Amino acid sequence: MVRCLPVIAVALAASVGTPSGARASEPLPSPAPPPAEESASYTPLSLALVTPVALPPLDPMVVGGLGLNILYGRSRSTYGVELGAILNHETENMGGVQVSAIANWTGKAAGGIQLAGILNYNEGDCYGIVAGGGSYCGGSGGGLHVAAIYEEVSGRFDGLQLGAGGLYAKKPGALLQVAPVALVGSGSAVQIAPLLAGADESLDGIQISTFAVNVLHEFSGLQISLIVFDNQTIPTSGGSCGYNCEIQVWTEFPDARTRGVVLAGGVRAQNFAGWLTSATIASVQHRVEGVQLAGLANQGGDTSGVQIAPLFNYAEDLEGLQLSAVNVARDVKGLQIGAINVARELTGLQIGAINVAYGNKLPFMVLVNAGF
User: Fold this and answer.
1) What are residue 328's phi and psi, to 5 degrees?
2) Nearest-CA neighbor of 103 among 90, 93, 165?
3) Parallel, antiparallel or unpaired: strands 42-50 and 53-55
4) Residues 271-317: tens digit of each pLDDT
5) Which of 47, 82, 149, 337 is buried most, with the most CB atoms less than 10 Å from its CB?
């Protein structure tokens, strides 16, 4: 019966660690692969002062039942309940409940409930409830994870991350992050972060932040923040060109795009498609498709849609409508309405006190100017 405990515990850990939001096209790794422990010694009860000072000697013992570690206890695996004052250490797997006043450390997989006052450190997967000052999962994770300071999951994560400091999940699947700083690599997530919500690469989902949100490459969904800065350039290399002279090389992503709805105090992006509302300035460097509304001014590259601002609108090429006190565009196919309207080529109408279309037969008109 004792030898059956690891198998039962592994099955329990696997059932706990399979999140309901997993995608069929992206099968999750097994949270606690069956360990090759047929030749190991098993004990239903262990008591350790500092391994190897233990009853029975734990290393490489497998505990199936209850483990008590006064200072430091190390076993091959534990399936059941493990309690420690300083450090619980499994060189392979933990399945069940693991509690330490200081730290828990597993060499492979952890499944169940893991609680530590300072750190949960898992070299492999970690599924279930993981809570402590900080946590690290070298593999995939899922369930409910709570970190007072910081948590990082290096693989796929499905579930809920809560923190009072920072959170990071490299490959979010179906993830909700709530923390002052919430970061992901690339995937799908909902981020609620007072200071910063961001993604290293691409994100589909929702970002809500009191201060700032940022996605380096692609974003699709809803962004609400004081500052939105998407698709930014990043430094990739540097060098020297003589005394007190440095060369910095930057890489930008001109094809990266933000799609969806953005509500912000200020916006800067490379490309945008959808509905963009900024309380101050909305700046899109390359392509705009949709609606730009700004409290002060809009700036866009090639624009198909609508730009509305009280003070100033600028677009390189415009197909659509500009409505502001001052509207400026290179080539206009559509309508400009404002006190001053300026275009190089006009196919459409300008309505305003001063209308300028340099390439037209009538380059200057008051009230109305037309080009066909």
Assistant:
1) -135, 135
2) 90
3) antiparallel
4) 999 999 999 999 998 999 999 999 999 999 999 999 999 999 999 99
5) 82
Across the range 120-125, mean pLDDT stands at: 98
With beta carbons less than 8 A apart as the criterion, state whether 93 and 32 touch: yes
Taking the alpha carbons of 44, 49, 50, 53 in that order, is the dihedral positive or negative? negative
* Alpha carbon distance 306, 328 (integer Å): 13
Strand partners, 192: 178, 208
- The CB-based long-range contact list for 311-319 (8 Å cut-off, 24+ gap) reads 313/338, 315/288, 318/343
- Beta carbons of 213 and 207 less than 8 angstroms apart: yes
Peptide bond preceding 56: is omega within 30 degrees of 0, i.e. cis? Answer: yes
Write the CB contacts of 280 (distance below 8 Å, at least 6 apart in sequence): 265, 266, 294, 295, 296, 297
Omega into 52 within 30° of 0, i.e. cis? Answer: yes
pLDDT tens per residue, range 233-284: 555 555 555 555 655 554 566 677 899 999 999 999 989 999 999 999 999 9
Question: Among candidates 283, 287, 282, which has minimal Cα distance to 301?
Answer: 287
Q: How far apart are CA 224 and CA 276, in angstroms?
A: 10
Nearest to 188 by CA among 214, 216, 211, 220: 220
Three-state SS letters, the chain: CHHHHHHHHHHHHHHHCCCCCCCCCCCCCCCCCCCCCCCCCEEEEEEEEECCEEECCCCCCEEEEEEEEEEEEEECEEEEEEEECCEEEECCCEEEEEEECCEEEECCCEEEEEEEEEEEEECCCEEEEEEEEEEEECCCEEEEEEEEEEEEEEEEEEEEEEECCEEEEEEEEEEEEECCEEEECCEEEEEECCCEEEECCCEEEEEECCCEEEECCCEEEEEEEEEEECCCCEEEEEEECCCCCEEEEEECCCCCCEEEEEEEEEEEEEEEEEEEEECCEEEEEEEEEEEEEECCEEEECEEEEEEECCCEEEEEEEEEEEECCEEEEEEEEEEEECCEEEEEEEEEEEEEEEEEECCCCCCEEEEEEEEC
